[in-house]
Structure formats: C-alpha cells, structure tokens
User: Fold this.
Amino acid sequence: ILMVDEKGKNMKCLTFFLMLPETVKNRSKKSSKKGNSSSSSNSKLPPVCYEIITLKTKKKKMAADIFPRKKPANTNTTAVQQYHQQNLNNNNTIPAPNWQGLYPTIRERNAVMFNNDLMADVHFVVGPPGGTQRLPGHKYVLAVGSSVFHAMFYGELAEDKDEIRIPDVEPAAFLAMLKYIYCDEIDLAADTVLATLYAAKKYIVPHLARACVNFLETSLSAKNACVLLSQSCLFEEPDLTQRCWEVIDAQAELALKSEGFCDIDFQTLESILRRETLNAKEIVVFEAALNWAEVECQRQELTATIENKRKVLGKALYLIRIPAMALDDFANGAAQSGILTLNETNDIFLWYTAAKKPELQFVSKPRKGLVPQRCHRFQSCAYRSNQWRYRGRCDSIQFAVDKRVFIAGFGLYGSSCGSAEYSAKIELKRQGVILGQNLSKYFSDGSSNTFPVWFEYPVQIEPDTFYTASVILDGNELSYFGQEGMTEVQCGKVTVQFQCSSDSTNGTGVQGGQIPELIFYT
Assistant:
C-alpha cells in the first residue's frame, strides 16, 4: 500500500502480499510437491495487486515548506547564479540538461522561464516604432496570470500568432509585468511605475496595479502631485486622486511651481484652477497658468506669443480669480503681463477702486483655502521670575502622527512681562535632515496666548515616523511656558505623540517648555 498525502508526496510505503484465492491454491500445490521450498523463493513472488490511499494532513504544506532553502554546493551555487544572470538577458537558453534539479519549488522553476526563449511559444514586439524589444513568452503561464492573455490565447476568438505587436506599452513596463506573472515578484521604479500601472490595467493584473498605486502614494509629493492627479483620473484610481488633491491643496504653491504642473492636460488644468481649497496666493496661480500655456504652445507647435498663450488657455483663463489678488500683485503682475485685454484691465482696476463695480467674467470671490488645525500639547501655562529665558539656545520636541499631515508652522508662547517682539528661527527635521526652516519675527501682547510662526511652505509629514520640531528664540523678555504636557494628543482625526528631543538645550521637553502647538493641514 503506497500511502501519499494530498499533494502526491510519498508519506509511507507498506508492502503487503494480497493473494487471490486462485494464487493461494496454486502456491499450496507447489508447496506440497516441493517440501524443501524456502521462504526466500516465496518472497520473490511479485504482489498481485496494490492500492493507493490518500492521507489527509492537518496542515497543507507548500514545496518551500517541505524543502527549505539551503546553501547548495559550490558547483550548484555557480550554476544557479549563472542561470539568474542569463535570466536578465533576452533570448537566453539553459544548456544544462538537469536545470530543474537546481530549484526546489515550482515558483523558482517557473521563474527560470521569465524572459527565456526556452520552450517559448509566443513572442511580443513591445514598444513604439524605433524603440521596440522582442520578448519571449509562454502562453500557459501568461494565461494563468492574466484573463486578457487567457482570452488572447485560449478564448473563443483566439488567434494562433507566433508574434504579437504591442506598440502602446514600454518594454521596461511590460517586462515588470512579466516578472510579476512569472516570478511573483514586484519590481517597481520611479521612472517606469506609471507605464507599469498602464500595462497592469490593460492586461487586468489587479494585484500589480494595486502595488503600483501604493508605490505612487508613498512617493507622492508636491513635485509630482499634479502629474499623478492627471494619471490617476485616467486610470480611474479614486484613492490616489484623493491623495493627490490633499497634497495639491496643502502645498499648492510648491505644486503650481513644479515642472510637472506644465505637463498636465487641459482638463486637469481646469480642475486645479477651479479648486476652491487651493492654499495659494492668486498671483501664484496666475503665473503657473502662464507657464503651462507656454509649454502647451510648444506641444501644439505654436510660437509662444501672448495671443497663442491666451488661445491655448481658452476659457480656463477666467477660472483664475484675478479680482481676488492683492492690488499690488495685480498692478505689478497680471496687469502688465499682456495676457489681459485693455478693457479687462480697466474693468479690474475699477473693481478695486470704484464704489459701483463693473461686471467681470473672472471669478471675484477669493478661494476658501484650508483651515489650519492646532495641536496643543500642554494643559496649562505659567511664568516665573527666572524662566523662560532665551539666550540663543534651542527648544526642541519630537513628534509623530498616525496620518499624513502638512506642518504649516508652530504656535509659540510670548512675553510674560508685557508687549515684546521675538525673533524666531523655526526648523523641522527628520533623522537629522532639514525638511523646512524659516526665520521670522512675531509680536506678543503680554498675554498667555500662543502666537503662530509659519514655514515658507507647509512640510509634508508621513505617519508613524518621529520628526524634530525646533525653535531658537531671541528676545530680552521672559516668556510664558507650558506645564502638564501630554505624551499623546487627539486632534480631530489625527493622533499626535510627543517625546523628548536630544536637540533641546533650553529645557523644553514633554512635560513643559516652549513649542506648545503644532499648526498643520490634513
């Protein structure tokens, strides 16, 4: 009886001689004729029948569990490395007759076929004309990994082609998708992740597509948010779209000044210009639109004249809230740009100065922007005659959040001895790297209120990582300081944790000191 498990692995072999009645009768006759027959002669008789019994095990094990990976001998190590190196090149073949024995699992053996001509029954010519690459494939493996490939090779309308042209996918992105299908490995890079997402969407490989989106979300910043917004709408990824809007709203001026803003399509441009929660000055929005128009003229092979810039902007120009600009910004910027007609310029000047305002095609209502939130970490404050004094020393605290936020500035205590002015150098670091800093002054009125000091641009803060907030104050007067500090504060939907910083040399810590507030956008 051959006892095997559900995977066909030999568990135990028990040998029985199951004698049929006729066989027993014949053997008895032979024994009576030859009394000196030995047991050894009987043992040579083959078994008449056998049965295979499947044993159900309590826990199913994969091949990798049954054969844990060990360091092979030196000869095998060299061979495996050689095959892996060959696997990186196109049209490679495996000369060794027993290469299968080098890999204990089906996953590893299957991975050997990645980008390999051995047993390939289809080839793909991938990429646009002039930049194509011929890649081998195996229909069965591809069909198992993608419903599109299954329909292509085994569906009712399948075509028996040895070579398939794919001009709309980049070779590097197609290889990344094949590597996932063959090797169950996700290998993404910043310069090819969008193309890989396109390939994963086209061939319906959802897990790879999700990995691409996760990669994009973790690498999202003001520099690439506008481009990713455009792509996320194209790929119908609402979660990524929402993340892009969060970055664009909070870091609007950085996003609008980025090179990626000029690469967006017209529809995305309109959606950004229409955005009510953009946290930016309107003159910055205006200048960004003109920069986009100049690049769009180049894309349409037009001379970048004032007329052509206005032509490519079209009705999107009226989404810029020029009447909501500061008068100085309009007079020194938009009014002298040449993009406005003479009548538009006169009407907008009248809008600023006249009691009876003319009708404008431009939106005149200022944007709402974002409302900053304040996380206050002290339960009370106080002042004493000998502290809190500033002599160029650093007050510092570390903090971490559980959701992505954008730190806009700090709330600081002011003078406890009447009105006073302070010079503040604020700084935000992560693992010693400066992410944002600013030098400014603020005036305190002698109350125990906190006074905001802002960074030039909000700083993006990732969750579950400690950052260091620091300030160096310069002022003659003693100030209030916080007491009864909390190690964890719930601020809306964001949880903030605090811990002491080794950079603090002026006494600030979790229990007391300066930097009572973090000011942020969510």
Summary: Residues 1-88 have pLDDT under 50 and may be disordered.
